[in-house]
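Tokens as discussed.
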């Protein structure tokens, strides 16, 4: 055992995750010290209310509501507050003073990652954020380090447990979205205000982070196309089931090759929306609130990362992993490594993204309507692969499946369908993954 001085760890937040990190730091003190080569000294825990009742009993003398002072004296700051402010300012202050940072805050990393990484690079410090995507699942380090010598083509993941739980309930119990959301809230999977989950904001933050890492390119949050699950109906779930499919909300980060064989002309896309997957697809088997991320790399092929995407102890595992890794660097010496953005690939507009779609329409019930509707697809360069009359809804319900077409062409078809006198309404549009 060497005799490196103890490292001063300031913990910001003692909620679901922070309280578990504090517990592990205190309970596993000796084991962690042996692993790091120096003791990790928890010097304080910053909270809003030092007298609040907590899941884990914490030493009262460690709790403080003066987060700025706590940060000022630390070697490593672990931020588990959530939200943008005061987390951003506290971490920038910590980095400016030369401290390293661990955070689980996807909203902050997605919106201000480059600012934090730049501040870290200036002083040779490090920002680790393994818990920001997929909770306990190791995915940041595999993309950043294990796959650094490969060319990642695609990352597709179920990265929001709440929406996965809701869609899973709709499939397995026949619940409506509202019923499934109510159960998710009761079980603690959904927040009192579920907007960030069901409108896809949380998944979009994670898509920003995953795309930036996978493609060594800064992908700003505003470049991520986002659709949540609020347009998913029980009829869409039943329609998917009739064709052996499952609906999932996924984040897709994709490299769009320019065909030249050289990676430098490739463009990248990041998007979040519901998809219809064959029941045999590995992501279709991801049940309840679990997360999974499916990575396809040129040489490595398909890789799947699966596990608990949330939960106090589970997320604390990833936070502790980051903390140990940063603390070891302190002991061994050397500057922190900034995330690589060397490739700086162009970001493709959403309209250029290619996908197969399935559209359900209610049309006027008379001969010749199908030919007119199919003609609209042809007019906009979209080839129809399949047409069926939906048996569940009798006479005038059509389900059309397209071959691969750009989102821009599909948007034009939808506009044309909406304006067409034989189309009563567009019941649903879903993208198909094979
Ligand atoms: P949480 O339960 O809401 O806890 C937040 C903690 O931060 C509380 O202890 C709160 O203090 C403190 N806090 C918040 N704002 C503060 C302020 N302005 N000043 C001082 N203290 C403040 O949050 P959480 O679920 O542990 O999540 C923490 C972070 O981990 C978030 O970024 C979240 O996105 C991320 N994350 C969470 C999970 C999960 O399963 N929960 C999974 C992955 C990532 P009081 O206790 O005094 O109110």
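Sequence:
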């Amino acid at each position: 055992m060497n005799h490196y001085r103890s490292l001063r760890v300031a913990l910001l937040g003692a909620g679901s995750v922070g309280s578990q990190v504090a517990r592990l730091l205190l309970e596993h003190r000796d084991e962690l010290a042996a692993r790091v080569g120096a003791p990790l000294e928890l010097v304080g825990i910053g909270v809003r209310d030092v007298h609040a009742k907590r899941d884990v009993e914490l030493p009262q003398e460690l709790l403080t509501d003066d987060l700025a002072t706590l940060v000022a004296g630390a070697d490593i700051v672990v931020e588990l507050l959530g939200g943008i402010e005061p987390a951003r300012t506290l971490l920038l202050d910590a980095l400016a003073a030369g401290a390293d940072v661990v955070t689980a805050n996807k909203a902050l990393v997605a919106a201000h990652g480059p600012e934090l990484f730049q501040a870290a690079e200036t002083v040779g410090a490090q920002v680790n954020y393994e818990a920001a995507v997929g909770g306990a699942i190791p995915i940041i380090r595999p993309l950043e380090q294990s796959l650094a010598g490969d060319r990642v083509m695609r990352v597709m993941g179920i990265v929001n447990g709440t929406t996965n739980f809701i869609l899973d309930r709709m499939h397995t119990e026949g619940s409506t979205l509202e019923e499934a959301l109510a159960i998710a809230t009761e079980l603690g999977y959904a927040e009192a205000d579920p907007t960030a989950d069901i409108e896809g904001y949380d998944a979009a933050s994670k898509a920003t982070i995953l795309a930036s890492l996978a493609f060594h390119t800064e992908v700003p949050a505003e470049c991520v196309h986002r659709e949540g699950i609020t347009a998913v109906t029980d009829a869409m779930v039943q329609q998917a089931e009739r064709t052996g499919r499952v609906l999932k909300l996924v984040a897709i980060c994709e490299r769009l090759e320019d065909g030249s064989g050289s990676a430098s002309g490739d463009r990248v896309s990041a998007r979040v929306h519901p998809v219809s997957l064959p029941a045999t697809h590995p992501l279709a088997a991801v049940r309840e609130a679990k997360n999974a991320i499916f990575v396809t790399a040129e040489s490595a092929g398909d890789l799947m990362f699966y596990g608990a995407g949330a939960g106090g102890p589970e997320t604390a595992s990833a936070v502790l992993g980051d903390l140990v890794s940063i603390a070891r660097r302190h002991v061994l010496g050397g500057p922190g490594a900034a995330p690589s953005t060397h490739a700086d690939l162009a970001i493709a507009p959403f309209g250029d993204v290619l996908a197969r779609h399935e559209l359900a329409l209610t049309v006027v019930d008379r001969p010749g309507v199908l030919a007119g509707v199919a003609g609209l697809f042809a007019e906009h360069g979209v080839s129809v692969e399949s047409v069926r009359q939906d048996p569940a809804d009798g006479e005038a319900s059509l389900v059309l499946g397209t071959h691969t077409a750009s989102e821009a062409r599909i948007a034009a078809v939808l506009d044309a369908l909406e304006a067409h006198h034989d189309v009563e309404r567009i019941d649903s549009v879903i993208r198909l993954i094979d």
